[in-house]
Specification:
By secondary structure, the chain is an alpha/beta fold. It folds into two domains: 2-170, Nucleotidyltransferase, domain 5; 177-221, no CATH class. The chain is built from nine helices and five strands, in the order E-E-E-H-H-H-E-H-E-H-H-H-H-H. The chain has helices at 51-57, 61-64, 70-81, 91-104, 120-127, 135-141, 154-168, 173-197, 205-221; strands at 2-10, 21-30, 33-42, 85-88, 116-119. A five-stranded mixed beta sheet has the order 3-2-1-4-5, with helices on both faces. The longest helix has 25 residues, at 173-197. It is globular and about 45 Å long.
Length: 226
């Protein structure tokens, strides 16, 4: 099972108003095990960043001047997320921006590329109704260290999201994996114990003689019926 934890930073809140993606990070996990494979890039949005957005992530337009355009990295991004389960916190927000960027260059929405999309914010709201379920709140709830998150950043947020997701699902799909592993261990344990404790006892000469005499008497007694 291949999963991609994705996060973006943007120039503002609304892609319909022309706001753009300025940072994308995606981290790969296979069979609930993180790999060293990840995708991370800063992008030139070709427009100014809203002051309120800049206060959240701290990324300036000046910093992005020499960064690539979305179109130039789109093929790499598509290949990285292809057929994987895409896991995003507040998925409608990031998907709206990703689809706007893809549509701007004539490509299909991200859902047509991925195998599945999971929104961890919806998962958290279902599990913790009425509670604060932003990433910071969930890190606190699951005792995950987010002390480095003084500002929002796509790469750090994707890493934290992966940890939060693992904590949220520890009793679900991980339980099946753990159960399967435990059953395999038990089978091996029982087999090894049986082999280790099994003793082969050889009959003595007297026992062999007595056995042969017993078999001979049975054959003699039953000769009339055979």
């Amino acid at each position: 099972m291949r999963q991609i934890f994705l996060d973006t930073e943007t120039t503002g809140l609304y892609p319909a108003q022309g706001h753009r993606i300025i940072e994308i990070a995606a981290i790969e996990m296979i069979n609930r095990r993180p790999t060293r494979n990840h995708f991370h890039v800063y992008l030139n949005p070709e427009r100014e960043i809203d002051p309120a957005a800049q206060e959240v992530h701290g990324i300036t337009y000046e910093f992005l001047q020499d960064k690539p355009l979305f179109e130039s990295i789109s093929a790499q991004l598509i290949e990285f997320v292809r057929d994987a389960e895409l896991i995003i916190h507040n998925a409608p927000f990031d998907l709206g921006f990703l689809n706007a960027e893809l549509g701007r260059i004539g490509l299909q929405p991200i859902a047509s590329i991925c195998g599945k999309i999971t929104d961890t914010l919806k998962m958290a709201k279902d599990a913790r109704p009425g509670q604060r379920n932003n990433l910071d709140a969930l890190c606190k709830y699951f005792d995950i260290d987010n002390s480095k998150r003084t500002l929002h950043g796509a790469l750090l947020d994707a890493e934290l999201l992966a940890e939060v997701y693992m904590a949220m699902t520890r009793g679900q799909d991980s339980l099946l994996m753990d159960l399967s592993y435990t059953q395999q261990q038990e089978v091996q344990h029982v087999g090894s114990n049986t082999e280790r404790n099994l003793k082969v006892l050889k009959a003595s000469e007297l026992e062999l003689v007595a056995h042969n005499e017993y078999i001979h008497s049975l054959a003699k007694a039953g000769a009339k019926d055979w």
